[in-house]
Amino acid sequence: MKDNADNYPALLIANHILGGGALKSRLADRIRQKEGLSYGVGSQLNVPALDPAGLWIAYAISAPQNTAKVEAALREEVQKAIADGFTEEELSEAKKGWKQSAEVVRTQDASLVHRLAAYLNIDRTMVYDKDLEAKVAALTVAQVNEALRQNLKAVNLSIITAGDFAKAAKDAAAKP
């Protein structure tokens, strides 16, 4: 996928609902707020302008003893989103949050300069951002759910863990 694909705006918002909305997302609500398993959790969607090489990343930072539970919860939430879809309320909140975030980024000089320089390289103007915002505003929940189902397959998730799991196991064994 490239960032001019028809379903890119819908996938962008699907990511926002799932984990891109910082502390207000399905992953954060479940893994951090509800179950208290992670210090931080979220997701990112990276879709380039020039090459069809999109990437979705989810991450969580947790204590080693919580790793298996975090992984299971992440997989469950992705599977649930794909199977059941998102709600109108989630879509409405995601549209507002995503737009607000985009507006804030444009007020930061460094971010704006970086974007303008990147756009020069690909012969794009800020009209692209204006058009993307209009497309996001017009999205339906059916479009967002379909984009997620077409582009994210729970069975294809690769989980990578890093940490001192040996120390965590040793500490767990030493507890009475």
The first-to-last residue Cα distance is: 53 Å
Q: Tell me the number of helical segments per DSSP (H or I, 4 or more residues long).
A: 8
SS-based structural class?
mainly alpha
Order of helices and strands: HHEEHHHHHH
Unreliable sequence segments? none
Strand percentage lies at 5-15%
Q: What is the CA-based Rg, rounded?
A: 18 Å
The major β-sheet equals: 2 strands, antiparallel
Word description of this protein:
With 176 residues, the chain is mainly alpha-helical. 60% of the residues lie in helices and 8% in strands. The protein is built from eight helices and two strands; from the N terminus they run ααββαααααα. It has helices spanning 8-20, 26-34, 67-84, 88-107, 109-121, 127-137, 141-151, 165-174; strands at residues 40-46, 55-61. It has a two-stranded antiparallel ribbon with strand order 1-2. Strand 1 (40-46) and strand 2 (55-61) form a beta hairpin. Helix 1 packs across helix 7 and helix 2 (26-34) packs antiparallel against helix 3. The longest helix has 20 residues, at 88-107. It is globular and about 65 Å long.
Looking at this protein, list some descriptive labels.
single chain; 176 residues; mainly alpha; two-stranded antiparallel ribbon; 8 helices; globular
Please summarize what this structure is:
The protein contains 8 helices and 2 strands. The chain has 176 residues and is mainly α.
